[in-house]
Design goal:
single chain, Spore Coat Polysaccharide Biosynthesis Protein SpsA, Chain A, 10-stranded mixed beta sheet, 5-stranded mixed beta sheet, 4 domains, about 900 residues, alpha/beta, disordered N terminus
Length: about 900
Amino acid sequence: MTDDRSRRPGSALRAVAKRFRPAPAPLTVNDRLLRWARRIGEFGVLDREYFEILVGRTFASDAEAIEFYVLNDGSRGLSLSPLIEPEWLHDRQPDERMSWYDFLHQESGDLVATSPVFDSAVYAASVDSSSRPSTPLDALRHFLAHATAATPMPVPESRPGPAPTWADQRARALDTARRFAAAQRRTRRRYRKTWGGPDLEQARETYSAGLARLDAEKPVVSIILPTHDRAGRLEQAIASVVAQTYTAWQLIVVDDGSTDDTPEVLARLTASEPRITSIAQDPAGAAAARNTGLANVTGSYIAFLDSDNTWRPSHLEIAVAALLQGDSPAVYTGLRMVGLNNTADAAAESQETFRGEPGTLDDLLAGNFIDLNALVVSAVAVADIAPFDTSLKRWIDYEFVLRLASRSGVPAYVDHLSVDYDNTFDPQRLSSREGASWQEVAVARQLIDWEGLESSAAARRADLVSVVMPVYREWRMTLRAIEAVLASAASGPDVEVVVVDNASQRSVSAILTAWFGDEARVRVLRQDRNLNFALGSDVGLAATTGSVVVMLNNDTEVQAGWLAPLLRELDDPDCLGAQPLLLYPEGTVQAAGTVFGGDKVLPWHFLAGHPRADVDRAAQTAFSAITAAAAAFRAADLIRWRGFDPVFANGLEDVDLCLRALASAESGEAHFAVALDSVVIHHESKSPGRDDARITNRRIFDERWQGSYPASEPGRYSAAGFVFAGVSAGEPKGHDVMVRSSQPVVLRPDRVVADGPWAGRPSLRWALKVSPGLRERAGELAASLRKRGQEVVLDEPDAFYRSSCSLDDVAVALIDADRFVPQPGAVNVLWDPAGVADPLATAAFALHAGPGGIVRAPSTPSDVEALVLEALAKR
């Protein structure tokens, strides 16, 4: 039968219309995401209460919540359910290119764990065969439909501890979400583009009772204004004080050793205004200048103004009225800021932002939102916490406000815009020159009660070792590191692990808490902000209860029997701390102690990049410093030393600690130890921002220890059979850092065999490059060579090109599927060419050896080559 549908009336017209119809608009990213939102809604796995707590908002429907998730998850790492942890699932689904929801939508038969507490295979096995789920999504749906509060969670078999009930796990997840949401709120950006607050008349109405008292009592406000070489800006700042609507004030300007026209400006202004007092002093910094001002105040209240900034006329009027009307000894007002304190705003038009809102002490610890220029405080409250800390080089005002808040309560917020703050980039400003880690120094004093820790140190458990593990944005290695510690503890002393999560993305604490939630020996402490290694470790130390504390990087993997040798070293009262032998995964040395090259030479790790055999030969165990990547200390000692100095941001804090400890030691035999029979593998990950402060760390370290560096230690290399020839000077990194990077120059001297059949003949250094399947053959060759007084090291494939290869005289490639490129400057031997898969290897090596003897050799070998040929022939 002929199909004549194309001849029906109108079909031709429709075809023509279709040809000229505009093409549909392409789907946008949001279109695709919203399409996925509808599909996710069909999954039926959303836990809306959990998600609302997590994001700190409510939704009118499940659909609205899921749309919010798909449109915001890219930058926030959210989760829709305690049963689905996207990063965990991503690592276990067969195709890592898929999103978690795409994987579930595909209805894959791969029954994987969708979170640390929900293994779909374990759950499916617990369900009767007649209704057994066949996909992860089916398992999730079935669980949610049938689980009761008492249902045990189907956890992966390897998860430590007992399986929690669904009620317990969900409560734990809600608590974790609640803590995360609270931290997000505390650390939110507190700036806004518009003010939107009350105007002056509204403020006067709000504080009318205080204004009445102000008019009646007229208390004097003492204003402290430190300045240094700001003559051009100083006059504007002072003019803003003179223009105040409240006139009972005293201005004390402290000239901190200015070399510009500041003295002349002050002389002119003080002559015309008797309420202004000028005090000159030698340059000592802003903190010292403010302390000079405090020593000369006479008012009942104290306010602060920097010479870069100005007040609006109503600042003192409203602030002091609020003080008189309220019950807080201190208040702060709103702030208008111009600039972002970066080089981009120095030349272009600067951005304008506003800041002003109330907060708690926890908010304040998470980040400063009270500027000193906006603060007015009673003289009594200032006297209780004065003076300003002159040891700080930055965040001096933040530390002062923190002390004020902890002693007298957080100052009350006055919703009135009265301060104009210049935050444009200025290289003369401390905030532009000094490192950001001074913020950690300021906050550390509120986070850690060292005196309290010291007084309770004797009560710590003598039978417990506390492991402190800081982590930043990495849960996979952290999980492995913790499990290695717990596994090793089965045959040793009791341990506890305190994980300090330095404000990582949500998934880190969520996954670690879910995985170790029923393991009593593990605690996860999430911080509101990144405290860096030093302060993060100190916070962890404060939370421990053992008499011995081990600082352990989260990218390490302890080996069996690692802990006992460290504790053995600490049995020696002269040992202040002990580290294991740190090896890279391929077996080369990462750190075997820290050595020095003399004054103004930065220290380095002993025999880094060498094979372990060199460390064993050197047998060096006593050092002036060790690495804190893995190190054991007596808790009482760490507390007495006040832990790591937070001024060092992820670098040199461990060396500084060791030098401070040695400087305070009473015994002349005090030292730090390396336990060579304790081994820890260091994977040495690179956390984001890990080296951001490297230059600043070097400058601070050199300023502190210049003239007191430990002496150069060439003898350590002699013990390993090498000659320390000096240091290789690197380029200066940062011209304000008066110390250059350096590396040791190590040579292997000519040596002769001391005894045996080859006595008096040259002893060469042989590096056997060994494929895993040829280890036994390599061992036989090594034994034969050692009988002839030869020095032998073995390298696995990942260590074929270790940094210390230049010390090797001979490189022997015992390889099959692996490749080894001949080493310049060495005699290169290819062992058993017939068993080598690489077609380029035969031509690349001038010397072949194997079961058939010497296959190829130089026609006129050198003395070294002749010895190699003879040694191989007699293997």
